[in-house]
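Narrative of accomplishments. A recurring question from our advisory board has been how the design workflow behaves on a single, concrete structure rather than in aggregate. To address it, we present the structure tokens for one chain from the evaluation set, followed by the sequence designed for it. No filtering or post-editing was applied between the two.
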């Protein structure tokens, strides 16, 4: 096998200080190594581009290369990273400060526009997927935590404890200041993300602290996010930390923790989403509310939740910590008889009574052993009683539902093919 190594060092004399955490070696700004490995038979050569450090100027990643994320790669304030349709990005293994991730910092943008036939794929460096392919053959939905994930951070409002104006995003060490998010610009624009598949992520950075598949921190309405798939992430599939961004056409399969997680007064709309629990999944939905005095109300609509009877957990939804918002047109099936939809505490139960948290048009295929749909709706508040919780649900048989996600637009996903979902 022929191997040619060409090193292209851009701004190699610059060392990034004040942003990145000090590790064993300094981080060089935009040091890129291109390794061409031929097949030894005179055929076309595939290119692998190793990327480390910060991207400080407008940069394009092309679909005739595979890009390898070595530790954290940060698109810095003022720069735009454009990723062509069909491009494959692979993250290297590592934990703690060595975990790989692509981070779009506040003030930066990502322009990642895939297509149904040529999605942009984020996966592990151990995935044998090659240029021009949409799936490899050596990993499946149970291969998790092999790299980090994609984080997009913005300047939109969030509700933080103590009413601070900004905070450090989950999954990034506290002294890495490129992990800050939050602000006052509800219309903040972090770019465009369309037809993206994120697979096999969730590397551990600390005890009980993993990176989500897609993390959205303080992302504003100027950002376009639609047609997103997350597969086999250790922690959450997609987590919204405050912000106002509207998203549509989501699919999360076989996450380890929660599929869709809302925190810190996220105030956008999530429209048309499918969750498919795997053998190790926890909640399909975990919804928290504001942490400070700033309120915010989410909208979650047209969602299909597909359960799993193998996982030890596998709940429908957990509403916690002063959650505020609306859920409507939710269809669920395939869950265990002990799975439930919970109001977890007095605050969220009070919000339900006062109309700040509302439910409508839930249609559920009852698990074996459950005879009344209201039994799936559980109030766990200590002192606050609720009236009518569960009346929003209707028992249906599979195939007769009138609500839930439209799945035809998700037929492009790896989950649809590998999971035999039939979309």
């Amino acid at each position: 096998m022929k191997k040619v190594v060409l090193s292209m060092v851009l701004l190699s004399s610059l060392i990034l200080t004040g942003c990145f955490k000090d590790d064993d070696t300094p981080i060089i700004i935009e040091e890129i190594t291109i390794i061409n490995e031929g097949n030894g038979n005179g055929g076309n050569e595939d290119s692998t581009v190793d990327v480390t450090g910060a991207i400080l100027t407008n940069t394009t990643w092309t679909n005739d290369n595979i890009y390898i994320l070595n530790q954290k790669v940060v698109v810095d304030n003022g720069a735009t990273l454009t990723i062509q349709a069909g491009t494959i990005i692979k993250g290297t293994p590592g934990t703690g400060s060595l975990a790989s991730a692509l981070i779009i910092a506040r003030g930066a943008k990502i322009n990642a526009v895939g297509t149904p036939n040529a999605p942009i794929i984020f996966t592990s460096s151990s995935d044998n997927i090659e240029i021009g392919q949409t799936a490899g053959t050596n990993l499946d939905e149970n291969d998790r935590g092999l790299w980090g994930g994609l984080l997009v951070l913005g300047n939109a409002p969030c509700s933080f404890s103590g009413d601070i104006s900004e905070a450090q995003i989950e999954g990034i060490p506290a002294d890495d200041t490129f992990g800050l998010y939050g602000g006052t610009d509800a219309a903040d624009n972090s770019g465009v993300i369309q037809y993206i598949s994120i697979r096999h992520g969730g590397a551990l950075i600390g005890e009980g602290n993993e990176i989500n598949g897609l993390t959205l921190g303080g992302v504003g309405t100027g950002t376009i996010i639609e047609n997103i798939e997350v597969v086999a992430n250790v922690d959450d599939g997609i987590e919204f930390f405050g912000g106002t961004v509207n998203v549509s056409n989501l699919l999360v399969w076989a996450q380890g923790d929660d599929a869709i997680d809302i925190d810190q007064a996220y105030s956008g709309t999530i429209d048309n989403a499918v969750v498919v629990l795997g053998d190790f999944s926890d909640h399909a939905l975990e919804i928290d509310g504001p942490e400070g005095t700033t309120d915010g109300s989410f909208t979650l609509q047209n969602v299909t939740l597909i359960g799993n009877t193998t996982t030890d957990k596998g709940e429908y939804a957990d509403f916690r910590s002063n959650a505020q918002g609306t859920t409507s047109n939710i269809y669920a099936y395939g869950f265990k008889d002990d799975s439930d939809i919970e109001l977890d505490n007095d605050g969220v139960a009070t919000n339900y009574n006062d109309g700040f948290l509302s439910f409508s048009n839930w249609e559920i295929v009852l698990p074996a052993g459950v005879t009344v749909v209201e039994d799936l709706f559980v109030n766990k508040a200590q002192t606050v009683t609720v009236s009518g919780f569960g009346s929003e649900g209707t028992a249906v048989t599979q195939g007769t539902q009138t609500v839930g996600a439209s799945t035809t637009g998700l037929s492009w996903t790896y989950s649809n093919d590998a999971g035999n979902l039939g979309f």
